[in-house]
From TrEMBL:
Organism: Agromyces ramosus
Species lineage: Bacteria, Bacillati, Actinomycetota, Actinomycetes, Micrococcales
Stated name of the protein: Imidazolonepropionase
Localisation per UniProt entry: Cytoplasm
EC identifiers of the protein: 3.5.2.7
Cofactor(s) needed by this chain: Zn(2+); Fe(3+)
Length: 420
């Protein structure tokens, strides 16, 4: 099978099941908009046509400006010559994963802390400070090399769009360096200077918030698209969090929130109040939180890797979906609470333990992530979207949950070019 390419034309055909996330009459799978025995035409990095494979040759002919379609049919090889035809062999294609929540710029790891948790210790926000020390001690090149390794890991597991947060620097210079490094690998950079209060400000948290909303935000906003805060016991109060988010919004950044991870807290209420694009974790929710989310445009982003590796109870996706909340899944890849970059793993856990169907989990990992990042160019396979596609070594999207732990990523294209 050939690789395709960003420039030019590529016809993917022989697709047993195409998940488009673009429902239309005649398509199955509700929001997944499934087309069976499908083909996809990619031109100059964009999807330009989607439909039944049997109609694909029809679609190809016009580019050659042949007035006489019959002549085109008779000279198939002529008009086939400038399109690379890739037969994927009766397997499934879904949109590339959109991982809307990661913390990938850091030094060191916390394997010992994980082992201690598995022996019974609780997860606490304070562990973040040990990664802050390791990150400050690392050089730019060390952090850059580590980040490049994570990006390769994401791509090889089918992720084509990903967000990266700062938050392990917690000084003006270190946060600026982290958002700058993140910006080298993604447009979706989030300033998380308010991750925890660093040790040197331990007894004066409000002074730290002053720094975050002042000099630190001014240094980081030019490299960032989003502002985020960890609104939680042991991190920032709702009042402190509100200050940070309002300042970020005033600097032109979109709002995201870490909330309701370790207890009910006020994170969800604050996110809805400020019109955040997403509130992430949502592990402990009151009925009022669920109702507020359902009445808002704020996405609830669930992070199954966190509960897996902290042994907290899983968030109840079923409750949220049944209430009408838009749910996304993301990896939260970070060295403390969730050191996985695998969206297939998150899907398998969400289906097994969070009440999601395979279809809901696949939607939440692709289209849901796109909504959480307010993106309309990714997360779906439809004309005009970026050609970010994931070929599975399986006949259907269900296998992502049905075959946990099995490498099912056969090929990944980003903007029409093969990246894995
Ligand atoms: O999303 N909750 C806050 N931040 C990260 C954890 C970071 C860490 O433990 O290092 C999270 O889970
Ligand atoms: Fe996080």
């Amino acid at each position: 099978m050939s690789d395709g390419g960003a420039a030019g034309r590529m016809l993917l055909t022989g697709i047993a099941e195409l998940v488009t996330n673009d429902p239309a009459p005649g398509r199955d799978g509700g929001p997944l908009g499934i087309v069976r025995d499908a083909a996809v035409l990619v031109e100059d990095g964009l999807v330009t046509w989607v439909g039944p494979a049997t109609h694909a040759t029809e679609r190809l002919a016009p580019r050659h400006e042949r007035e006489d379609r019959r002549e085109a049919e008779e000279h198939r090889t002529l008009w086939d010559a400038d399109v690379e035809v890739v037969d994927v062999g009766a397997r499934a294609i879904i949109p590339g994963f959109v991982d809307s929540h990661t913390h990938l710029v850091f030094g060191g790891d916390r394997a010992e802390e994980f082992a201690a948790r598995m022996a019974g210790r609780r997860y606490e926000a304070g562990g973040i400070r040990s990664t802050v020390a390791a990150t400050r001690a690392a050089t730019d090149d060390e952090l850059r090399a580590r980040l490049a390794g994570f990006v390769a890991e994401l791509h090889s597991q089918g992720t084509t769009t990903f967000e990266v947060k700062s938050g392990y620097g917690l000084s003006v210079a270190d946060e600026e360096r982290l958002v700058g490094l993140a910006r080298e690998v993604t447009e979706e950079v989030t300033f998380l200077g308010a991750h925890v209060v660093p040790a040197e400000y331990a007894d004066r948290p409000d002074e730290y918030v002053d720094l975050v909303v002042g000099e630190m935000l001014a240094a980081c906003a030019p490299h960032s698209r989003w502002v985020d805060v960890f609104c939680e016991r042991g991190a920032f109060t709702p009042e402190q969090s509100r200050r940070v988010l309002r300042a970020g919004a005033a600097a032109g950044l979109g709002v995201r929130v870490h909330g309701n991870q370790l207890g009910e807290g006020g994170g969800v209420g604050l996110a809805v109040e400020l019109g955040a694009a997403s509130v992430d974790h949502c592990t402990y929710l009151s009925d009022a939180d669920v109702a507020a989310l359902a009445a808002s445009d704020t996405v609830a982003t669930l992070l199954p890797g966190v509960e897996f590796s902290t042994r907290q109870p899983y968030p109840d996706a079923r409750r949220l979906i049944d209430a009408g909340v838009t749910v996304a899944l993301a990896s939260d890849c970070n060295p403390g609470s969730s050191f996985t970059s695998s969206m297939p793993f998150c899907i398998a856990v969400a289906v097994r333990d969070m009440g999601m169907t395979p279809a809901e989990a696949v939607w939440a990992s692709t289209a849901g992530g796109a909504v959480a990042l307010r993106r309309t160019d990714v997360g779906a396979v439809r004309p005009g979207a970026r050609a970010d596609l994931l070929l599975l070594d399986a006949p259907s999207h269900v296998h992502l949950a049905y075959r946990p732990g099995v490498p099912l990523v056969a090929r990944v294209w980003k903007d029409g070019a093969a990246i894995a």
